Amino acid sequence: MKQLSRYALADEFSARLLDDGRWVADVDRSWWGWSGPHGGVIAALAVHVAAETAPEADVRAVDLRFSGRPGDAELRLTSTVTSAGRSTRMVDVAIAQQGVVFASASVTMGHLRPPAATDIADVSSDVVPSPENCAPFSIPPEIVPMGHHLDLRPTDGPLPLTGAAEPWMRAWISTVRPMTVDAAYLALLADCLPPAVFPTLTAPVAVPTVAFSMHLAAPPDHPGPAPVLVCTRNTSTSGGWSVDDTTLRDERGRLLASARQSRRVLGWEARR
């Protein structure tokens, strides 16, 4: 039996390799976002496939672009490896449903050297409550069904749809079912907070992701389940587009990854 601490996010979606070299995965409606499979799930599956395609290296970055909207059908992921030096690989992943590609990712893979005294680490000096001292916050399932899979505990700052003056949020996040903290898991968590402009609103708007990127920093101290401190901040919303920057940190304040999203904003004027 699989040890609970080694349960990976990809296991949740029965990600598996077919004889023809393609991967398939099933995302049920409990993992949907606004109107289809959650964008963080798509990013996580792309990262997982890339990691399995080039297992001799570690995930260092991912760039994901959406060219369509996914729906109910089984996901099919096709990977292609390009060498970019002696220790670097680029893995391109095309994600399709019913023969139509709706998203594509480019994942940068590279070898990690052992820790050294000369390493530069981003360690936050912010003082925030520990996860056990933060009250849970529930994302309404009628807005984002996959919210019930999350243990989300805001630490400080404004909450969504409160008409606040500042467009940012910060919370400890983990999945209700404990999972391995790997690159795929971090890709999911990077997209788990609502769009950072939401605290300035009093009613939701559709803000679909068009482009998502994530860069890995320090590896986790251990791969076992652990809450991650996720902070997202809106850096720009204008002309029907919105940009969010997100950081993911461990309980020591070390930066695990940083992410950026470009989103379309639909119905903005009607909700202000």
Automatic annotation (TrEMBL):
Q: Which InterPro entries does the protein's record reference? A: ACOT8-like_C, Acyl-CoA_hotdog, HotDog_dom_sf, Sec_Metab_Biosynth-Assoc, TesB_ACOT8-like_N
Q: Which residues form the Acyl-CoA thioesterase-like N-terminal HotDog domain?
A: 30-110
* Domain of life where this protein originates: Bacteria
Concerning Pfam families, the annotation shows: 4HBT_3, 4HBT_3C
Residue ranges annotated for the Acyl-CoA thioesterase-like C-terminal domain, each copy included: 131-262
Q: What is this protein called?
A: Thioesterase family protein
- Where does this protein come from, organism-wise? Gordonia aquimaris
Organism lineage reads as: Bacteria, Bacillati, Actinomycetota, Actinomycetes, Mycobacteriales
